[in-house]
Amino acid sequence: MKNSKNSLLAKHFSHIYIEKEIISHPITKIILDKFPNSVLVEIDNYKEVFSRPRQNYKLQEISKKLILAKKKGEFLYPGPPLCHDFGYNHFYYTSLIFNCIFSCDYCFLKGMYPSANIVIFVNIEDYFEEIDSVLKRHPLYLSVSYDTDIMALEKIVPFFSMFIEYATSRKDLTIEIRTKTADYEVLQSLKPSENVILAWTLSPQEIIEKFEHKTPSLSARLDAIKKAIENEWKVRLCFDPLLFTKNWDEIYLKFLNQVFEEVEPSKIVDISVGVFRIPKDYLKRMKRVFINEITLFPYEEDQNVCTYPYDLKKEMMDVFLSNLRKFVHQSKIFVI
Hints:
GO terms for molecular function: 4 iron, 4 sulfur cluster binding; DNA photolyase activity; S-adenosyl-L-methionine binding. By secondary structure, the protein is an alpha/beta fold.
């Protein structure tokens, strides 16, 4: 796994664009040390590269470039209604990184951003300052890996470990770190924290091979989860999104059996379940670039959100949940 991961990363970041304002920032130096052979290009604003018109998204996916920038303006955003709040009253998310090293056909990022290149906002101290300010007013449940996979990118920029260390010292802060990585090595030197939930997105191996390109196998993710549980990390399982495909019911039932043969349900904090759903505008942009089983499906639209037709969605959720409840008590299952 280590070799395949390094090979994946080696294909990217031949060029690194850096805003002049943050050339001397400590995080910038940490990142640049990882890529001594990359071509460095100074820029005034990351949008010059990331948001320019007529970009070739497919080519960028083959060889992503890295853009280092300073975040300005807002640092925290209210949790979107398309995402689970897990019962927390103050649900927010934050984005230190735009885009992901993986390439899932269904990922909303492909419709959200004009570029497949990765933007890293190096000024993490400003994010922490804003979070501290909010914590003076109320507790906070914060998702820090919605627009990327910070655990998968830890060997490029150490935001994953920095966030865990920071959250551990803030009693009213709970952070969720969502990931598909199987690279447990990044966790080995860290101490588990009551304030941190590691949330693994899991899919059947058939779905991974068909739609989740460049991601670790189901077996590899389950191995990482088992190690995390053994080392007393709080672990959430995310069966989200459920995807419709040929023989979906057989595929997902076999999947649930495999997951709970490996993972003890009582050791899991909770589980999220949801079918594929995406803002209408994001899907429209994805269709301009990608013609595949995900983008071609005749979804239903409701309040600018596209998802499966009602009867199909109900059937998928009913079948999946009835079987999931054979392993996990209803009180641990969050549905959207």
